[in-house]
Design brief:
The two termini are 35 Å apart. The strands form six sheets. A six-stranded antiparallel sheet has the order 11-18-12-15-16-17. By secondary structure, the chain is α+β, with helices and mostly antiparallel strands. The chain contains five helices and 18 strands.
Length: 267
């Protein structure tokens, strides 16, 4: 169930036009402190407004309309909220990053290791091993292509191609590295949009805790958004066995060593 909290007395409107310019039959006042349930798949950011479909009608005119975003706080419950809390928790974030660096045996290009370690702590057993994909031996927990394929095949998430329809906890992949077709250059968790701007979002990844990233054209030196994978609420928050995260670079195959060198080109 998804909810929105009204944090400032506002209007539910049929358009994004300023409420003072709308006739009475195209707006309805909503008091601060109210909590409303909405369909999360309907959510769209339009300028400084949220377009949502409510689960219950607001009299007198309907369920679908616009809220001025500074007056609204969105909530996505369940798995996504737990995931976001985990990667934004100061102690948990740095512990996840340290483990990712151990798996990666270094501090560079740990985006997949960070993301996969986060999911393992959520109870999703992302393996730390080499797999054959399209004739290549690659590592699921260290390289974007096999990580993406494993999630799509084993976890079966929902694929989100529209950058304006992201929700907290979505696993975002950037466009492919130009030198390595088929390998997204980066992976990160979406947290929330920059207020009034779906072209920029606050994200969390191996590079730092919650920080701003341009989605449309890429921040300087970064690649733009390509798609996201959305994990639904079918998982419990349990910790994976420690042996899943104890395989180090020193134990890896020569093929994996070569793949890690290839991955140096990524963000």
């Amino acid at each position: 169930m998804s909810q929105l909290h009204v944090i400032g007395t506002t209007f539910f409107k049929k358009t994004t036009v300023q409420s003072s310019r709308l006739p009475a039959n195209e707006k309805v006042a909503v008091n601060a402190g109210e909590t409303l349930k909405y369909n999360p798949d309907s959510l769209k950011v339009v300028g400084e407004h949220y377009l949502v479909e409510l689960l219950e009608q607001i009299a007198p005119w309907g369920t679908t309309g616009y809220f001025y975003s500074p007056h609204i706080q969105l909530e996505v419950s369940g798995f996504a909220n737990r995931l976001v809390r985990k990667v934004l928790s100061n102690n948990e974030y740095w512990d996840i990053l340290r483990t990712a660096e151990q798996i990666r045996n270094g501090t560079d290009n740990t985006c997949v290791a960070f993301s996969s370690e986060t999911l393992r702590r959520m109870g999703i057993p992302v393996p730390i091993e080499d797999v054959e994909i399209d004739g290549e031996i690659l590592n699921i927990s260290l390289v974007t292509k096999p990580y993406k394929i494993w999630l799509e095949q084993k976890v079966k998430p929902r694929r989100i191609n529209d950058a304006t329809k992201l929700r907290p906890g979505d696993i975002c992949f950037s466009k492919d590295d130009p030198d390595f077709p088929g390998f997204p250059a980066h992976v990160y968790f979406f947290i929330e949009y920059s207020p009034g701007d779906t072209g920029a979002a606050y994200v969390v990844d191996n590079q730092q805790p919650k920080h701003l990233r341009n989605l449309d054209n890429g921040s300087p030196g970064k690649t733009p958004f390509a798609f996201a994978l959305r994990l639904e609420n079918q998982f419990e928050e349990v910790y994976a066995a420690r042996e899943l995260v104890e395989k180090s670079f020193l134990e890896a195959s020569e093929t994996l060593r070569q793949q890690l060198m290839l991955n140096q080109a990524f963000e």
